[in-house]
Specification:
The structure is a single chain. The protein is an alpha/beta fold. The protein is 31% helix and 20% strand. The chain has twelve helices and 16 strands. Strands 1, 2, 3, 4, 5, 6, 14, 15 and 16 form a nine-stranded mixed beta sheet that branches. A four-stranded parallel beta sheet has the order 10-11-12-13. A hairpin with a 2-residue loop joins strand 3 (28-33) and strand 4.
Length: 359
């Protein structure tokens, strides 16, 4: 890759093939104009991409941030947007927002959980997160909205296993939707998955490993417009760490959801939480998730869309997810063709976060 004719403020990436959500374009020029993608290459720094492939910055639809180091790990692996599913207290979350030159985040902040589920045993979480009845829902959602939560995380368990009951969960969904907030439901078992549908959440994250999703739940996911964020890399890691069977069921359920036309979002559950049996590494694990999605039956184009256009669409991120003038200059230049081999997403040569090269 060669660079010539330096000029300040703008960069023109020449001779790059762009992933446009359907395939790869012919070699073209993409202009980075400050924080956004521009349209005029005249007078810009010139970078010869030598035919490399330019992807929109990748989006991981399920992470847990540990601190600023998490952002840099994500960015180094081309993940320029992370959808965080639990960070508290609000001061910790606020300190991770709007950091130039690294991964941009959205977050649920403090989740809403039941009194007796496994999440209530995580240090410091129970006193802030437990809902004990539907009458608490409106205040809890309002508190999270005031603290800057971009959506609500509702942790569901199968009925009787310690999560919020159906009435409380429905009240949370109603309160969130009244404020224009999406609801993401943790549902790692068959019973929790059905409950997530019953209470009307928007996105169901994880995929059960205690059996394959029943046909009725798959039908409802499609007909009711639900979105799946299956975290296959986490489900595989847990199965291995705990010596359990069931990952084949997880893969089969994702294949069935995909075949039914349910939107699938690439999601790793990357975390560094003490006591969690498996900790997918930030950044690297999203590439593994893409590989597992292809194993589950998605084409490489569909897997890339699951990490770009689809999470942008279903989380309302209208300024990113594609390479087009006016959008954020979140870009990943790779050596290799991920449409021929999804593993090529790992061959990253350069990353830009909001137009700033990530060191």
């Amino acid at each position: 890759m060669t660079v010539d004719s330096p000029a300040i403020g703008r960069t023109a990436l020449h001779n790059v093939r762009v992933f446009d959500g359907h395939g790869l374009t012919e070699p073209t020029t993409v202009v980075i104009d400050g924080a956004v993608i521009g349209a005029d290459a005249e007078g810009a720094d010139r970078v010869d991409g030598q035919g490399a492939i330019l992807l929109p910055g990748l989006i991981d639809a399920h992470v847990h941030l540990a601190g600023p180091e998490s952002l840099d790990q994500l960015a180094a692996h081309g993940v320029t947007t992370a959808l965080d599913m639990t960070t508290f207290p609000p001061e910790k979350l606020a300190a991770l927002r709007n950091r130039p030159g690294t991964t941009d985040i959205r977050s649920a902040g403090t989740p809403i959980i039941g009194a007796d589920g496994m999440h209530a045993r995580l240090p410091g979480l129970a006193e802030h997160a437990v809902i004990r009845g539907p009458e608490q829902a409106e205040a809890m959602v309002a508190e999270r909205a005031a603290a800057g939560s971009d959506y609500i995380k509702l942790v569901l368990e199968a009925p009787g296993e310690g999560g919020p009951d159906e009435a409380a969960a429905k009240a949370v969904v109603a309160a969130a939707h009244a404020k224009g907030l999406r609801v993401v439901a943790h549902a790692a078992s068959l019973g929790a998955y059905t409950l997530a549908l019953d209470v009307g959440v928007d996105v169901v994250t994880h995929i059960p490993s205690d059996g394959q999703l029943p046909a009725e739940d798959v039908r409802r996911m499609k007909s009711e417009g639900r979105v799946a964020a299956p975290t296959l890399v986490m489900m595989q890691g847990l199965a291995t760490a705990l010596g359990r069977l069931g990952f084949a069921d997880s893969l089969a359920s994702v294949a069935t959801l995909h075949a039914a036309g349910v939107p699938i979002l690439a999601s790793s559950d990357a975390n560094a939480e003490p006591g969690v049996p498996y900790q997918p590494p930030h950044g690297d694990s999203l590439h593994r998730e893409l590989e597992l999605l292809v194993t589950a039956g998605l084409t490489p184009v569909e897997a890339l869309s699951a990490a770009t256009t689809l999470p942008a669409r279903y989380f309302g991120l209208s300024d990113r997810g594609a390479v087009a003038p006016g959008l954020r200059a979140d870009l990943v230049l790779i050596d290799g063709d991920p449409l021929a081999d999804i593993h090529a997403t790992r061959a990253i040569s350069r990353v830009w976060c909001g137009g700033i090269p990530h060191a």
